[in-house]
Amino acid sequence: MNPQWNATKIGIRRGWREWLISLRNPGDVTYTILGIVVGIVVVYLYRDDTPLPGVATPMAVYVLASILAVQVVFTSAYALATVLSTEREDGTLLRMKSLPCGLRAYTTGLIVRSLLEFAATAAITILLAAVILWPGFALSAVDVLILLGVLSLGIVALTAFGFVIGSLFRSPRAVGGWGLVVAGALVWVSGLIQPLSTMAPWVQILGQASPLYWMGLGIRSSLLPDEFVVIEIGDEWRLGLVFLVLIGWAVAGLILAPALLSRMARRETVASVEQGRQRALQRV
Fold first, then answer.
1. Cβ(7)–Cβ(102) below 8 Å
2. Is the pLDDT of residue 284 over 70?
3. Which UniProt key words apply to this protein (predicted)?
4. Which structural domain range is residue 50 located in?
C-alpha cells in the first residue's frame, strides 16, 4: 500500500477520534456551546428587521451568513492554531516527525477534526436559526448544495491560515492573544461585519484577496433572495468566481499546510520541547 495513502487513512481516523474525545472535554464543549448561543442570540435580535423595502426576508438571515463564516474562521484557523501551538509545545509534533509519513497523518487529522467540529456547530446553528425564523427562512435543494460546497471548500482553504498563525506563535497563550487579533482583522476586512461594498476602495481590494470574503459571498448567495444582491460589489453574486477562488485557496491550503508543518517540525528538538514545557509550567 502507498505509504502516503496509508498515512492519510490513519490521519482520518485520528481526526475522528480526536473529535470524539473533544466532545467529552468540558472546556471544548463549553467553547462550542458559547459560540452557538452568542450567534443564535444575535439572530433572534434581528429576526424582525427588514433592511430592504418590499423584501420579507429578515436581516437575521444576512447575519446568519456572517455567523457561519465566522464559525469557519474560529474552527479552521483560530482553534486549529491553538491546537497546533499546544501540541508543538508538549512534544506531539516532534513525535509525529519521527514517524514514517507522520506529518501527513498529523495534518490530515487536524483538517478532519476541524471539518467535524464545524459541521456539528453549523448544523446546530442553522437548525436553531430555522426554528426562530420560520417561515421566513427556507432553502431549496440547490441552495443546500451551494452552501455545503462553499463551506467545505472554505474550511479547507482557511486551514492554511491556521497553520500560519500556529507557526508564527510558539505558545497557546500567544495564539490566544495575537491570534485573536489576526482572526478579528480577517473577519472585518472580509466584509462580515458590514458589507464590503460600503467600505473604502482599498479595503475592498484587500478584502477580495481573502478567501473569507468569497466564502461569505457564497454563503449569502445560498441563504438570501436575489434582491439582496444590491448590497454586494458589482450587484452580483459572482457564484462561478466564488467556487474558482475557493478551489484555488483550498488547493493552496492543502499544499501549504504540510509544507508549513514540515518547516515547524524541522525546528523542533528535544531541547526546544523541554524549554516549551518549562514555559508552560511557569504559566500554571
1. yes
2. no
3. Membrane, Transmembrane, Transmembrane helix
4. 3-271
